[in-house]
Specification:
By secondary structure, the chain is mainly α. Helix content is 52%, strand content 9%. It has 16 helices and nine strands. The protein has helices at 8-11, 24-41, 84-88, 111-137, 142-146, 149-169, 178-213, 232-256, 290-312, 317-320, 322-346, 350-372, 374-381, 389-392, 417-421, 429-433; strands at residues 19-20, 55-56, 65-68, 71-74, 105-107, 259-268, 274-283, 405-406, 410-411. A three-stranded mixed beta sheet has the order 5-7-6. Strands 1-2 form a two-stranded antiparallel ribbon. A two-stranded antiparallel sheet has the order 3-4. A hairpin with a 5-residue loop joins strand 6 and strand 7. Helix 4 runs parallel beside helix 12 and helix 7 (178-213) runs antiparallel to helix 8. The radius of gyration is 36 Å and the shape is elongated. The N and C termini lie far apart (84 Å).
Length: 454
């Protein structure tokens, strides 16, 4: 490698009218070859030294050839004026190579954080597996029937889908190809979005169904409400509609600004040479942020509506699980808001962004499972799954037919509304001071036309 000053060939003072050839490129090649040979065999078969270096003069330069390890190199081809780009040894654009991190310093997420993410996945998977098995075993228990096992199964399914997104966000260019990273970015967004929608919409449908059934039941009411039949199909619109809206938004997003793996420059020198870069999933385009923001707002509104429903059915919390549902929804609202803000502020710090996204997916689903499903399975495990009547009424009347029937409870026509609603304060003073009426079988006027939850 010549020193870049061609005039030294004619005006050089060393060795008369000329200068010496110095070939660090060839010497480096030899150094690497010998290092690998020594590492692999433990010895060196050949040693070559480059001192003193050959002398070059202007009259002989054009035809001068340097022999090295059996190959001949034209001296002029090794000079810096022919190898300027290689001499500066840097990239000016990440698109110049398939993986810029092979050439420049890249910010990677520590492997330990990926391991922590996989541990979170394992914990939720274990809960979902155990919950699914116990839910099937105890599916005939009254407490499970009352909680509507179909909806509980959908909650477990949504949690599994949501949790799986952590696996696909735990990738970078160290172990995966560009195509695998692009597919992982897409899978992460779809699984996280649809999994959360399935879980949240199921909670909404579950509580709304109970609201419809109990819509005419008021604390302190003296007459039994008219029958209101609400089947799973009647509330399936929340689940199907929510999923379809998310799918449309995601399809438009990926059709106009695909969410894929990109390498972004974080530091450059004064010559524009890339010094540091970071790889992460992102979308190109100035308006790409609109799509995830619409999804966040949609999910947030659904969570708020679920909280409103839980409040409206709080008097019937034994049937609707409104207390636990309210805690779950409030937890999800907090996590969604906090995670969105921190990820938006994390910038190029991929480690912080990864921790927040993984913890959000883990904690959101862990909370739903732990609050909505595990307590019921715990009671079934200790043979308390059928102890439901004692919590609902003090007077027990065997059902004579299907009127006024709630799956898992039997006939509820006899239930004192003040007892069911946990709201004795609504009973008038005269009724409170009067002697309690004797137990009786309900008459025809007491029996609602339909109050069945199937």
């Amino acid at each position: 490698m010549y020193n870049g000053a061609r005039e030294l060939l004619e005006n050089g003072k060393q060795y008369g009218n000329g200068t010496t050839i110095q070939a660090p490129f060839l010497e480096a090649t030899l150094a690497f070859d010998q290092a690998m040979e020594y590492i692999e065999t433990g010895k060196l078969n050949e040693t070559i030294r480059f001192t003193p270096n050959p002398i070059a003069r202007g009259d002989s330069w054009d035809g001068m050839v340097v022999d090295f390890l059996g190959k001949a190199y034209a001296a002029d081809s090794l000079c810096t004026w022919n190898q300027y780009h290689e001499r500066i040894n840097g990239l000016m654009d990440t698109f110049d190579t398939q993986n810029a991190c092979d050439w420049v310093d890249c910010l990677f997420i520590p492997e330990g954080l990926f391991i922590a993410g996989y541990v979170m996945v394992g914990i939720n998977y274990l809960l979902i597996l155990v919950g699914s098995i116990l839910l099937f075993i105890h599916r005939k228990k009254k407490i499970i029937l009352l909680a509507q096992p179909f909806f509980l199964a959908l909650i477990l399914l949504g949690s599994a889908v949501d949790t799986t997104s952590i696996i696909f966000m735990s990738r970078d260019s160290r172990n995966y190809t560009r195509r695998e990273l692009d597919n992982g970015c897409a899978a992460f967004v779809w699984l996280l979005t649809l999994g959360q929608m399935l879980t949240t919409a199921t909670l909404v449908a579950k509580i709304y169904r109970v609201k419809r059934v109990t819509s005419q039941m008021r604390p302190g009411a003296t007459n039994i409400a008219k029958k209101t039949k609400v089947t799973t199909k009647d509330v399936a619109g929340f689940i199907v509609g929510g999923l379809l809206i998310d799918i449309v938004i995601l399809a438009v997003w990926f059709g106009t600004a695909p969410f894929k793996w990109t390498t972004q420059v974080t530091s450059q020198d004064f010559n524009g040479i890339i010094l540091q870069a970071v790889g992460q999933c992102s979308s190109e385009g100035s308006n790409a942020w609109v799509y995830p923001m619409v999804i966040v707002i949609l999910h947030l509104l659904l969570l708020v509506y679920a909280n409103v429903l839980a409040y409206q059915t709080r008097a019937f919390h034994i049937i609707s699980d409104s207390k636990m549902a309210a805690v779950c929804v409030f937890n999800s609202i907090q996590l969604l808001i906090i995670a969105t803000i921190i990820v938006a502020m994390s910038g190029d710090n991929v480690s912080i962004a990864y921790i927040i996204k993984a913890c959000y997916a883990f904690l959101n689903n862990f909370g739903v499972i732990a609050l909505m499903i595990l307590p019921k399975l715990y009671q079934c495990y200790y043979n308390k799954g059928d102890d439901v009547h004692s919590r609902l009424a003090t007077t027990v009347v065997q059902p004579s037919h299907q009127a006024g029937y709630i799956s898992g409870l039997g006939n509820v026509s006899h239930i004192d509304r003040a007892t069911l609603c946990n709201n004795r304060a609504s009973v008038s003073d005269s009724e409170a001071n009067a002697s309690p009426p004797p137990s009786r079988r309900p008459t025809e006027s007491d029996i609602p036309e339909e109050s069945e939850v199937e």
